[in-house]
Specification:
Blueprint: E1 2-4, E2 7-9, E3 17-25, E4 37-46, E5 51-56, H1 64-75, E6 83-88, H2 93-97, H3 122-134, E7 140-145, E8 151-160, H4 165-178, E9 182-186, H5 195-201, E10 206-213, H6 219-235, E11 250-262, E12 267-271, E13 278-279, E14 284-289, E15 299-302, E16 307-313, E17 317-318, E18 323-331, H7 333-337
Parallel strand pairs: 5-6, 5-7, 7-10, 8-9, 9-11
Antiparallel strand pairs: 1-2, 2-3, 3-4, 4-6, 8-10, 8-16, 11-18, 12-14, 12-17, 13-16, 14-15, 16-18
């Protein structure tokens, strides 16, 4: 049993077999004054071996990861692997129940709440329990994201940089094992409130991923994510070798080679490009139409830099400042290694 002030979990994380339980958080408001918030947790253990922490529902409106982990929980049998899986398929449980990016209880964004505060608001308290009690049990971790209801992302691994060179090599090896079509390189050192950097501070190899989104469950993205999780399990020696794949992940520069194209006024946006398209500086991204001023001439928006369209907005109606596209330049593996 793991316990901290105001939150505990009855599961025996060292017991053999498949266990279903919850991280129970005490919180008092009009709805929860005489109840608890039960964050689902599953522990699957077969003999000695490494521990892999798998999470989804960090944002409640991101569904591919939630489906992937729920499928894994019920499909995997003890004889299929060795070691231990700790699975939290609905990490920010209140947000998952609310189908929203953030928690309805405190407006907390889980992925901006690590390492959390003991006895803090619900989102912060859950983050603190996971980072202080569960994360130290893991030899590695993967946090599964997607674009949520407002955006689409190319299926990709997110690799956060760290000042720990050995750990950076381990994270790169995990990202290459996961083998999503793209790996997006971002600075992790200045993102202390994120899940990945919190794990890195503890010296734990950890990656996250974006698996499409748009408020649905994409078939291709769930296949990529499921295969990626099993590829990492194979790399860690937890399962037998996965089938060979000729594709190798391509690296995208999210450090100084990425930018977003935003709407300059409210209206309707007509895109001219799809995700994954390679564009040049000066290419027309699409047209922005005023909703209220029909007589207003539509505005052609241009891409400022060349690169690959990694993300785009879900929904035609936009307001001033809405991100329409994110474009990232490709980078080589050697350039990634030069960051270490």
């Amino acid at each position: 049993m793991l316990t901290i002030d105001g939150i505990h979990c009855e599961l025996d994380f060292d017991a053999q077999g498949k266990q279903f339980g919850s991280i129970d958080l005490r919180f008092s408001n009009n709805e929860f004054a005489f109840s608890k918030i039960p964050v689902p947790v599953v522990v699957i253990k077969n003999g000695p071996g490494p521990t892999l922490l798998l999470t989804a529902g960090n944002h409640g409106d991101e569904y591919e990861g939630q489906v992937i982990l729920r499928r894994l929980i019920h499909e995997i049998e003890l004889e299929d692997f060795t070691g231990r899986l700790i699975i939290l398929p609905a990490l920010n449980y209140p947000a998952v129940l609310d189908n929203s990016r953030i928690s309805p209880l405190d407006q907390g964004n889980m992925n901006r709440s690590f390492p959390g505060i003991e006895g803090g608001s619900p989102t912060s308290a859950i983050a603190h329990f996971v980072s202080s009690r569960i994360l130290p049990l893991a030899d590695a971790g993967i946090d599964l994201h997607s674009g949520g209801t407002t955006a689409y992302y190319l299926p990709s691994t997110f690799l956060c940089t760290t000042n720990n060179t050995e750990l950076m090599h381990q994270n790169l090896a995990m990202a290459e094992a996961f083998n999503a079509p793209f790996t997006y390189i971002v600075r992790g050192e200045n993102s202390a409130s994120g899940f990945d950097p919190t794990a890195h501070v503890r010296g734990i190899p950890f990656i996250s991923c974006e698996l499409y989104g748009g408020g649905n469950v994409d078939v291709n993205a769930t296949q990529i994510g499921s295969a990626g999780v099993k590829n990492v399990m194979q790399q860690m020696g937890m399962i037998s070798e996965q089938s060979e794949c000729d594709m190798q992940t391509r690296f995208l520069n999210g450090i100084d080679g990425s930018y977003t194209l935003s709407a300059s006024f409210a209206g309707l946006f007509e895109p001219y490009h799809e995700m994954g398209d390679e564009v040049k500086a000066g290419d027309i991204a699409g047209q922005l139409y005023s909703v209220e001023e029909v007589e207003r001439k539509p505005l052609e928006l241009e891409f400022e830099k060349a690169g690959i369209i990694m993300a785009r907005r879900n929904g035609a109606r936009v307001i001033r400042g809405s991100h329409l596209f994110m474009v990232s330049a490709a980078m080589s593996r050697d350039e990634v290694l030069n960051l270490m």
